[in-house]
Design a protein that fits this description.
alpha/beta
């Protein structure tokens, strides 16, 4: 069901890779709600994924950009505002990558060049995206910027590795930059902490199936899906949430407030 929540609104969606991506599902929902946008991903991700199919489905253009490159981001924002015909109303940052995880390096045995690269892609890029938007005055008043995060930023999930640190840094950037974007431009900045979701990136984490099964048993409403997250993101892009900013918002079926559940205890006790 469409409510026309984003009719006439313009934006950029980063990170759509394939139909399992939260960014992909969000793009479909934004299109359904009347929003127009440019899709962007790193050139290597574009070769791996099916982003051209998504562009066709949503009548969108694709602009390749390395989100760690200020030059690429400046080009992206200039072209996006030109293509879309004005300033932006929403931006989704759905970018994350750990080279240490990909290479199988334990958290206690990091390659720090990999650590820095992962931080730059997963967190530093969010600051760079906002700095370019801010300096170019590319956002309309009451616009909305959302980045996707995960509970491991706040609590220990041993195999989430240095991505936990990256997500903690990402959330801090949202608050710090969100203050200036709010005061100076009337733009809101938030993060959404999503349930473990079987995206391409998520499935690269050791023990991910266990993560999902545990969270499902812990959460009163069960795990939130990629489509659930897309719907929440639409609400954050809409005018219905104009005074919500600097928040880390949990879309996790209640997991974040749980200590233990009967289902988990039953499993423990072998019942």
């Amino acid at each position: 069901m469409s409510y026309n929540l984003l009719k006439g609104k313009r934006g950029i969606i980063f990170g759509a890779l394939d139909e399992h991506s939260i960014a992909w599902q969000t793009a479909l929902k934004v299109h359904e709600e009347g929003g127009n946008f440019v899709l962007s991903n790193a050139p290597i991700a574009m070769r791996m994924g099916q982003i051209k199919e998504l562009a066709t489905l949503t009548n969108s253009e694709i602009i390749a950009a390395d989100a760690t490159s200020l030059e690429d981001l400046e080009n992206l924002v200039d072209k996006a505002t030109e293509i879309l015909g004005g300033k932006l109303d929403f931006v989704l940052h759905s970018i994350g990558m750990s080279v240490n995880v990909r290479k199988g390096n334990h958290y206690t045995n990091q390659n720090y060049n990999f650590t820095h690269k992962g931080w730059d892609v997963s967190a530093g890029s969010f600051h760079k995206v906002m700095q370019v938007l801010y300096k170019k005055d590319a956002m309309n008043e009451w616009g909305s910027i959302v980045a996707l995060t995960y509970m491991a930023s706040q609590r220990v999930f041993p195999d989430y590795n240095d991505m936990a640190d990256n997500k903690a840094y990402l959330e801090s950037i949202a608050r710090s930059f969100g203050y200036f974007f709010g005061k100076d431009k009337k733009v809101r900045v938030n993060t959404i902490s999503q349930s473990p979701t079987p995206t391409t990136a998520g499935q690269g984490v050791k023990g991910f199936d266990g993560f999902i099964a545990y969270a499902e048993k812990m959460s009163p409403l069960g795990n939130a899906t990629a489509i659930d997250c897309a719907n929440y993101t639409i609400a954050m892009f809409s005018d219905l949430t104009k005074r919500v900013t600097l928040q880390n918002l949990y879309n996790d079926g209640g997991f974040s407030n749980m200590g233990v559940s009967n289902e988990v205890m039953d499993t423990f006790m072998g019942e």
